[in-house]
TrEMBL record:
Motif annotated as 'HIGH' region, chain positions: 10-20
Protein's gene: gltX
Broadest EC class assigned to this enzyme: ligase
Quaternary structure and partners: Monomer.
Name used for this protein in its record: Glutamate--tRNA ligase
Organism: Mangrovimonas yunxiaonensis
């Protein structure tokens, strides 16, 4: 496959949904698999919905995910500009060309008139479709005389340009994922290509830009499948070779019913955006995967499995491995259910692969008020002991706070389980044993303390449970001797004495 060029073309109307990131990822994987080019195009023709900062958000999100674009705004602008608002001078000529060739026409119907027709049809139990069925009864260039059309244009009357959809034809459309699709053209409406405000609709701008940017494959969401017939017809109308199309399956709610939305994330407690987003109008802040502590590698890995399957049991893929394995033929037609627990599973795995020194730096930043004065090398040693049970960096504090501060509270259930009548005397003896350890290493402590327990026929639980309670404040945490080694001899003894004083 030569000269593969794909594009991701989001609208800057707010934060980029995780479904959009999945679309960008699949485009990126396909491009890199075939040595092609991944293009970012900003489709900002709808100025009424434009949101300041949304474009920067999109760029930053792609960069954070590790799937940056090859061409786009401000980068390798070979086919630029890459913002549709900066290309609007191009589209009118193409719309006029279709009108001149009889493949599109001027329509002068007002919004009020069209609304009247819709309501009239509804009252009669019908659906109003602007097409071959009724266009000769409406206010357009097909129903009016040439003189009437010229007069309206000369008078500056508002108009739109509509595509003239064919009658009594069957379209055979090919989709890489869905195969052959048959469409009866009688069911299609005459879509608006150029609006009264002088801007093209998505349909026209999309086709013109894909052609001029030499896009070879259009990989986009299933929601665009109903537009495929029009887009293919536009390519034919212009006499251009159409790109190959692939429509990705929907990302479904965790229940498997309906499309995943921000409301689902808010309700069930997970983000649906790659980065946090603040709505400047309302002040509301939407959670992001980055701010929630996810690693970008984990986000990319779980997104890849939303609709794609490598055909093997393997689930963990680096980005390079995804590029090597990716195949549009292995993308499913059916919607992909979003599983928040599975995303955490991926993040847990990538947590284990992170270098401890990097995790220590992130942990120190996240808990600067508690860890600022603590040596990063010490934090790194702590993380080595607790990371196996962690999914996020912020889990480290709950899993290992006792490495950095003396426990001030005791778990009540743990106290009842660990503290018996003879425990106080055993703990006092244990203090003496610990004091006798000259070289305070994990191995020495294990040998001396376990030797003392064995030689005195003491049950291990009778010593180790209250010892852990003293060190941690609960009956959990990593190896007791590792804890003692890190917090030091004096602190270990002090915590045992604190426990004796508290419970005596």
């Amino acid at each position: 496959m030569e000269n593969v060029r794909v594009r991701f073309a989001p609208s800057p109307t707010g934060p980029l949904h995780i479904g959009g990131v999945r679309t960008a990822l699949f485009n990126y994987l396909f491009a890199k698999k075939h040595g092609g080019t991944f293009v970012l195009r900003i489709e900002d023709t709808d100025q009424n919905r434009y949101v300041e900062g949304a474009e920067n958000y999109i760029v930053e999100a792609l960069k954070w995910c590790g799937i940056p674009f090859d061409e786009g705004p401000g980068k390798n602008e070979t086919y630029g500009p890459y913002r549709q608002s900066e290309r609007k001078h191009l589209y009118k000529a193409y719309a006029d060309r279709l009108v001149a060739e009889g493949k599109a026409y001027y329509a002068f119907d007002t919004a009020e008139e069209l609304d009247f027709h819709r309501k009239d049809h509804e009252q009669k139990g019908k659906t109003f479709i602007y097409n071959w069925h009724n266009r000769l009864k409406l206010k357009n260039a097909l129903a009016l005389s040439a003189e009437e059309v010229e007069a309206k244009l000369a008078a500056g009357q508002d108009y739109v340009i509509r595509f003239k959809s064919p009658q009594d034809e069957t379209l055979h459309l090919e989709d890489i994922i869905r195969g052959n699709i048959k469409i009866d053209t009688n069911t299609l409406d005459d879509k608006v290509l150029f609006k009264a405000d002088g801007m093209p609709t998505y349909h026209l701008a999309n086709i013109v830009d894909d052609h001029l940017m030499e896009i070879t494959h259009v990989i986009r969401g299933e929601e665009w499948l109903p537009s495929l017939a029009l887009h293919v017809q536009l390519y034919e109308a212009f006499g251009w070779e159409a790109p190959k199309f692939a429509h990705l399956p929907l990302i479904l709610k965790p229940t498997g019913k309906g499309k995943l939305s921000k409301r689902d994330g808010d309700k069930l407690g997970f983000p649906v955006f790659p980065l946090a987003w603040k709505d400047e109008k309302t002040g509301d802040v939407s959670r992001g995967y980055r701010e929630d502590g996810y690693f970008p590698e984990a986000v990319v890995n779980f997104l890849a499995f939303l609709g794609w399957n490598p055909g093997t049991e393997q689930e963990l893929f680096s980005l390079d491995a995804l590029v090597a394995a990716f195949d549009l033929a292995k993308v499913n037609k059916a919607g992909a259910r979003f599983d928040p627990d599975k995303t955490k599973w991926f993040n847990h795995h990538y947590m284990q692969e992170q270098p401890n020194h990097l995790l220590a730096e992130q942990f120190k930043i996240a808990y600067a008020d508690k860890l600022n004065a603590i040596d990063t090398a010490y934090i790194e040693l702590v993380i080595a002991l607790i990371k196996e049970r962690a999914t996020f960096v912020y889990d480290f504090w709950d899993l290992g706070h006792f490495f950095f501060e003396t426990p001030t509270e005791l778990d009540e259930k743990a106290v009842k389980k660990a503290w018996k009548e003879d425990t106080e005397d055993l703990m006092k003896e244990l203090v003496l044993v610990i004091e006798s350890v000259d070289v305070f290493t994990v191995e020495n402590m294990q040998q001396i303390i376990k030797g003392w327990i064995t030689n005195n026929n003491i049950g291990f639980g009778k010593v180790m449970m209250p010892l852990r309670l003293a060190l941690v404040g609960a009956l959990q945490g990593p190896d007791v001797f590792e804890i003692m080694f890190l917090i030091g001899k004096n602190e270990s003894i002090q915590r045992i004495e604190n426990l004796i004083h508290t419970l005596q």
